[in-house]
Amino acid sequence: MFTTLRTLLEVELKDIYDAEKRLVRAIPKMAKAASSEDLRQALEEHLEVTKGHVQRLEQVFELLGIAAKAKPCAGMKGIVEEGRRSPRPGRYRGARGFGRDRRGAASRAL
Questions:
Q1: 28 in Cβ contact with 47 (< 8 Å)
Q2: pTM score
Q3: What are the distances in angstroms from CA 110 to CA 3, 23, 43, 105, 106?
Q4: Which of 4, 31, 71, 86 could serve as 43's disulfide partner, Cβ 3.0–4.6 Å?
Q5: pLDDT in tens, the chain (110 residues)
């Protein structure tokens, strides 16, 4: 599958890059849907950290002379999709179930 450690490194970096970029797109939506101020604030703080990860990965790509191109990360794609499918307000009586469900999806993504 991988002929050299360099090839393995490149594939893994591209996978991680995709995962971080997916989070940068998903976290603002999760923060908007957050049921508590604490959760919204935690997500917004994590978004800034994640943006830093993306920038550092881009620096690593540049140092290694690799195009900063994402390789689809199936794991993160599944976690983000799971968060999209979680219940919306109104499906259950009250918002408590909604908040717990969103917190669960957010904790898996973080």
A1: yes
A2: 0.73
A3: 32, 8, 9, 9, 6
A4: 31
A5: 678 999 999 999 999 999 999 999 999 998 998 889 999 999 999 999 999 999 999 999 999 999 999 988 888 888 888 877 765 554 434 445 545 555 555 555 55
